[in-house]
Amino acid sequence: MRHFGFKKAALGALLLGMLLLQGCLGAPVRYSDEQMGPLTTLSRVTMDAVWGMYVGETLPENLDEAQIKQVVAARGRPVEGLEEALDTYDMRIVTHDRQMEAIFWDPKTTRKLIEDMRCTRFVDFKAWEVQASGSEPTLDWGICGP
């Protein structure tokens, strides 16, 4: 009988441990439209600021956060909320010919949040809704036309 009680206790402890581990790891982080709305606006405002600094010049193929901050600082007018957003999320801008795409992702979860080319009325890819990951561009440059 003692042996049987030990097996039950061990099984119970194992199940409890698994439940606690699952709780610690938690369900995937959920992002809401309310959280991401300001970030989509910030994405477009930042792309406009960067675009304005390269009028008549060749756009770099890739701009990381440091370069984005440098370009925004060089224009002499800060982009409200950019510093705070970059304290929480990572951002990069990639270009193709005269087109530009911004990508925001959460470095803690590697979840891609926004991918936007700013040539359409609304954000092009609400990645937070489909739990995409990474920071690589996936949109078709043809979205914006030739």
Structure, explained:
With 146 residues, the chain is an alpha+beta fold. The protein folds into two domains: 1-30; 31-144, no CATH class. Helices cover 42% and strands 16% of the residues. It has four helices and four strands; from the N terminus they run ααβααβββ. It has helices at 2-25, 33-53, 65-74, 82-88; strands at residues 62-63, 90-96, 99-106, 111-116. A four-stranded antiparallel β-sheet has the order 1-2-3-4. Strand 2 and strand 3 form a beta hairpin. The longest helix is centred in the N-terminal third of the chain and has 24 residues, at 2-25. The chain starts with a helix and ends in a 30-residue tail after the last strand. Mean pLDDT is 84; it is low at 20-24.
Low-confidence stretches: 20-24
What is the helix tally? 4
**What is the overall pLDDT average?**
84
- The number of distinct β-strands equals 4
Structural class: alpha+beta
The main sheet comes to:
4 strands, antiparallel
Write the H/E string, N to C. Answer: HHEHHEEE
Distance between the termini: 78 Å
Shape descriptor:
globular
Strand arrangement in the largest pleated sheet = 1-2-3-4
Beta percentage is: 15-25%
Helix content: 40-55%
- Please tell me how large the radius of gyration is: 22 Å
Number of domains: 2
